[in-house]
Amino acid sequence: MRLRGAFGSAVIALGLLFAGAGASPATAADATASLRNVLLVGNSSDGTVSFLDGATFKNLGTLDVAPDKQALFDSWDIFRQAIHSIVVDQAKGEHLVDDAQISPDGRTVYVSRGTLGDAAAFDVATGKELWRTDIEGYKADHAALSPDGTRFVVSAIASAKAKVLDTATGAVVNEFATGTYPHENMYSADGKHIYNMSIGTVSLLKAFNFLKGAKQVTEVDATTYKVIKTYPFEYGVRPAVITPDETTMYAQLSYLNGFVEYDFATGTITRTVQMPFSTKAAALSPDDYPQNSAHHGMAFNGAKTKLCDVGTIDDYTAIVSRPALTTDGFVNYPTDALPYWATTSADGNYCFVTLSNLDQVSVVDYRTAKEVARVDVGDFPQRERLGKVDESALGGLTAP
Q1: How far apart are CA 246 and CA 243, in angstroms?
Q2: Per-residue pLDDT, 90
Q3: Quick one: the chain helix, strand, coil %, rounded to 5?
Q4: Residue 8 — very low, low, confident or very high, per pLDDT cuts 50/70/90?
Q5: Which DSSP category does 392 fall into?
Q6: DSSP 15
Q7: Residue 361 is inside which H or E element, if any?
C-alpha cells in the first residue's frame, strides 16, 4: 500500500445521544471515542467485506459474510438450483456481496448477497450470522441503510421492487415499486426521501433498448414508502449523486461514456458531458460494455464542488469541477482494471475507487486529481460504503 495522505473527522453516531436514560457525558464521550471511521468494501467473488481505516487507509481485516453459502446450496431443490445457475450466468459469475453497510453503533454489518438472492446481518465481533432473509426474485442488488439504522432497503432486481427490511429482525416490513431492474438506492441528505435508479434488462442488446423496460428514477417517501414521482430516462440510470437541496442530479447512463446533469424540477437533462474514450474502449461495441455500463461510479466531494467520475471501460478516474463541469485531471489504471464504484471519504477530500479486476481500492485526492494510495482488498471488490466500527469489535476480523 502506498500512502501519501490522511484524513478523518469524528462525528457523534446517531443514537449515541440516546444511549440510555441517565447516561453521563463521560459515558457518551467514551462510547463515541470507541468508534473508528472505516470504509467497507464488498468483495463480491469471495463473499467478504474488507474494513479500511478512515485515517490511514490501512486494511484492518475482513469479515466473512457468506459462511453459509455451501449449506444454502445443499438445501436448495432442483428448481432453486436452476434459478441460481441462471442468475449467475446473467451476472457473469458468482456475486456473493452486492452491498454492505454497518450499523450506527459499529457492531453489525448488513449485506445484500447478490446471486444468493438474500440479505443477511452479521455480528462484527464474532462473525455470527444474526438473520437471513430471502429477497423476492432470487437476486439482491444495491442497498441503502436508513440514517437511524433501523431499515435496510434492498433492490429486488428481478421483481421491479425494493424491499424494506427491519434491521433488528430481517423481516420485510414494506416495499415500493420501481422501474425495471432496480439498481441503486440512496437516501436524500435530510433522510426524508429515497431515490431508486432502474437500469432496464441488461441482458438485451442495445438495439433492443425499447424492450428493456422502464428506465427511471423513482422518488419515494422514506416514512410511508409511497412513490412520490418517477422520472423516465431513455437509457438505464447508473450510479448518481444528488445535490442536498434535491434540485440537481449527476448521473451515469447505460452506454454513455460520461454523465449527465439532470434538473428534477423540469424533468430534463440540462447538460451531457462526453468523456474521452481510452484506446481500448473506443474499439469496444456497446454490447461489450460490462452490464451495459461505460462509466460506473460517481461521487461528490464534501463541498459538492467536484465530481469523481469512474470510467469503467476506459480504466480511469476523472475529477471534474462544477458548476462548469471542466475536467481537473485523470488517474489512469492498467488496461482491464475495471474501476467500478466511487465513494467519498468522511472528510470529503478523497474518492475511493474499486478496481475490481485488480482486487484493489484506489484513493484519489479531489484537490490534486492524483492517486495518493492503493490498497489491496479481497476478490473482485465492487460497492464501498462509509461507516464507523466499534474498536472493540475489530478482533473479530480476519487479518488481510
Answers
A1: 5
A2: 85
A3: 15, 45, 40
A4: very low
A5: G
A6: T
A7: strand 360-365
**Considering only CA atoms, which of 224, 165, 162 is closest in space to residue 195?**
162
DSSP tag of 358: T
Q: Which three cell numbers stand for residue 143?
A: 442497498
The DSSP-derived string for 181-215 is: SEEEEEE-TTSSEEEEEE---TTS-GGGGGGS---
Whether 363 and 59 have beta carbons less than 8 Å apart is answered as no
Number of alpha helices (DSSP H) and beta strands (DSSP E) in the chain: 4, 28
Amino acid letter at 267?
Answer: G
pLDDT tens column, 313-340: 999 999 999 999 999 999 999 999 999 9
User: Which residues, in sequence order, are CB contacts of 349 under 8 Å at separation 6+?
Assistant: 5, 7, 301, 302, 365, 366, 367
One-letter amino acid at 78 equals I
**260 alpha-carbon distance from chain centroid:** 19
Whether the Cβ atoms of residue 95 and residue 34 lie closer than 8 Å to each other = no
Residue 354 has pLDDT above 70, yes or no: yes
Question: Which residues, including other chains, have CB under 8 Å from residue 115's CB and lie 6 or more apart?
Answer: 84, 87, 88, 91, 94, 95, 96, 139
Q: DSSP secondary-structure letter at 179?
A: S
| Residue 217 three-state SS | strand
The CA-atom distances, in angstroms, between 225 and each of 1, 152, 173, 222 are 43, 13, 10, 5
Buried b (16+ CB within 10 A) or exposed e, 314-325: bbbbbbbebeeb
> Maximum Cα–Cα distance for the chain, whole Å?
66
CA–CA distances in Å: residue 103 to residues 108, 140, 168, 399: 5, 19, 10, 22
- Does the reported pTM lie above 0.85? yes
Give the three cell numbers for residue 14. 446517531
Q: What angle do CA 36, 155, 141 make, to 5 degrees?
A: 70
Can the peptide bond before residue 323 be classed as cis, meaning omega within 30 degrees of 0?
yes
Of the two residues 14 and 226, the one the predictor is more confident about is 226
Cell numbers of 397, please? Answer: 476480523
From residue 21, alpha-carbon distances to 14, 27, 28, 89, 277 in Å are 16, 12, 11, 52, 58
Q: What grid cell was written down for 211?
A: 424492450
